[in-house]
Amino acid sequence: MSSDSVLLALGITFVAGVSTSLGALIAFCVRKKDFKKIAFAMAFSAGVMIYVSFADILPMASDMFERTFKDSANLAKGAPLLMFFIGALFAGLIDAFVPEHIETKMIDGDVSSSKISRVAIMTAIALAIHNFPEGLSVFFSTLEDTRLGIALGIAIMLHNIPEGISVALPIFHTTGSRKKAFWIATFSGLVEPLGAICAYFILMPILSPALIGACMAATAGIMVFIALDELLPMAKQYDDQHTAIVGVFLGMLIIAISSFI
């Protein structure tokens, strides 16, 4: 393994991860307390997280388990599903034990800033966790096949732009700080090259396709739980019209289109 190939793999992963910053820049163009846009952003985020989980992450996780358990089709199919529900259970436990210091209240159609901030941070954390195994995937794909790594890096970059939007807008709404919104969203993406760095310096001796698949399936469960339990209900609180459902399907559509580019 040459140093040039390692640097190329790290570079592709970094570009894919930092693309959340492009999405985060939208925070500079949105007025504070524009409730319909906040509702749309949260629903859009939910659509992205749900679609990516079922259309991308779980199939990739299943493929990685199949590489490991070639002689046991049932185990290869069942293991990612089990890890998906373990991830959802983990997210539920976090949600149950993380206290809400200020009770959520509707005030003239608004939701308390503490609740929005909590959901925004949870979304950023979920996406950061999701981006870690993505970084592993891009890194090892590039080492194995440069063209495959570049294609996967571009696809993930396109995924990460709307993810940056979905993290930055709610944080900007609650804090009024464009810089904080930008940097938190950027951080959630920078976990991706961190995953690649860990892969090279720490995990290389013990890493296996099954381990990567387990991590990816579990993070899919976390993302779907947060989308259904937090993002969609809050989007409906902000706008009881059709903003939420439009946002969900537009998020799914954009990610689906990006898969063919």
Compact description:
With 261 residues, this protein is mostly helical.
Description:
82% of the residues lie in helices and 2% in strands. The chain is mainly alpha-helical and 261 residues long. It has a two-stranded antiparallel sheet with strand order 1-2. Strand 1 (106-107) and strand 2 (110-111) form a beta hairpin. The longest helix has 34 residues, at 35-68. Residues 99-111 have low confidence and may be disordered.
Keywords:
2% strand, 82% helix, 261 residues, single chain, 2 strands, mainly alpha
Q: What's the number of helices?
A: 9
Largest sheet: 2 strands, antiparallel
Estimate what percentage of residues fall within beta strands: under 5%
- State the order of secondary-structure elements, H for helix, E for strand: HHHHEEHHHHH
Radius of gyration: 18 Å
Total strands: the figure is 2
Low-confidence stretches: 99-111
Terminal-residue CA separation: 30 Å
- Principal-axes geometry comes out as globular
- Arrangement of strands in the largest sheet: 1-2
Helix content: over 70%
Would you tell me the structural class of the helices and strands? mainly alpha
Average the pLDDT over all residues and give the rounded result.
Answer: 77
